[in-house]
């Protein structure tokens, strides 16, 4: 994934509104929200989202009932190639009773959590990389994004799996089906963690 300044600006402007709900005007972009106090630790946010992997079943493409996993699936969605995040300290976040929290918003394009799709193809790392990419740390990386790669690096000549080709939503994300329990593409959930030095929340729609 590459950092995108337009997605960053969108995320930042929405974070500054201090609303604990998804941006209804984000269009065809994925979104993860995270709130934490007294400080914002980005590494903790990423670990929290990635930690949802244990609640995701790749075979059935569903969450464990009563758990969230859509933050995780968005983060690892193979056809998402741009990300931008913004954060803001909010004295009051509309929708959260706790005061003085940091709100983190990350937007993704193309969006993940596409209904009926899986985030990636199960199998050995880098065996299905698109043409023009190389394997770096078990991930497919575009050669154009890695000018530091040695000239003898061999780009992959394999085509991506058809099921995971970039495919835009047929409708705006604001008009997808209502939430259904257990489906990572439509999970609605809140999680509140009380830690000795921090309060953090995660929201997924």
Automatic annotation (TrEMBL):
<feature type="domain" description="SCP">
    <location>
        <begin position="2"/>
        <end position="116"/>
    </location>
</feature>
<dbReference type="InterPro" id="IPR002413">
    <property type="entry name" value="V5_allergen-like"/>
</dbReference>
<dbReference type="InterPro" id="IPR001283">
    <property type="entry name" value="CRISP-related"/>
</dbReference>
<dbReference type="Pfam" id="PF00188">
    <property type="entry name" value="CAP"/>
</dbReference>
<comment type="similarity">
    <text>Belongs to the CRISP family.</text>
</comment>
<dbReference type="InterPro" id="IPR035940">
    <property type="entry name" value="CAP_sf"/>
</dbReference>
<protein>
    <submittedName>
        <fullName>PI16 inhibitor</fullName>
    </submittedName>
</protein>
<dbReference type="GO" id="GO:0005576">
    <property type="term" value="C:extracellular region"/>
</dbReference>
<dbReference type="InterPro" id="IPR014044">
    <property type="entry name" value="CAP_dom"/>
</dbReference>
<dbReference type="InterPro" id="IPR018244">
    <property type="entry name" value="Allrgn_V5/Tpx1_CS"/>
</dbReference>
């Amino acid at each position: 994934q590459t950092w995108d300044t337009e997605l960053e600006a969108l995320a930042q402007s929405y974070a500054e509104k201090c609303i604990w709900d998804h941006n209804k005007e984000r269009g065809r972009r994925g979104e993860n929200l995270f709130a934490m106090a007294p400080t914002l630790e980005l590494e903790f946010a990423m670990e929290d989202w990635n930690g949802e992997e244990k609640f995701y079943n790749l075979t059935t493409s569903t969450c464990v009932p009563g758990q969230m996993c859509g933050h995780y699936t968005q983060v690892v969605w193979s056809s998402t190639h741009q990300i931008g995040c913004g954060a803001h300290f909010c004295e009051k976040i509309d929708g959260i009773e706790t005061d003085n929290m940091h709100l983190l918003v990350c937007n993704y394009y193309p969006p993940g959590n596409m209904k009926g799709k899986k985030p990636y193809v199960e199998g050995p790392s880098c065996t299905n990389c698109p043409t023009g990419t190389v394997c770096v740390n078990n991930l497919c990386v575009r050669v154009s994004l890695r000018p530091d790669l040695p000239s003898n690096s061999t780009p992959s000549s394999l085509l991506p799996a058809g099921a995971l080709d970039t495919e835009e939503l047929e409708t705006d994300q604001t008009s997808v089906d209502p939430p259904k329990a257990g489906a990572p593409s439509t999970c609605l959930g809140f999680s509140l963690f009380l830690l000795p030095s921090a309060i953090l929340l995660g929201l997924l729609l």
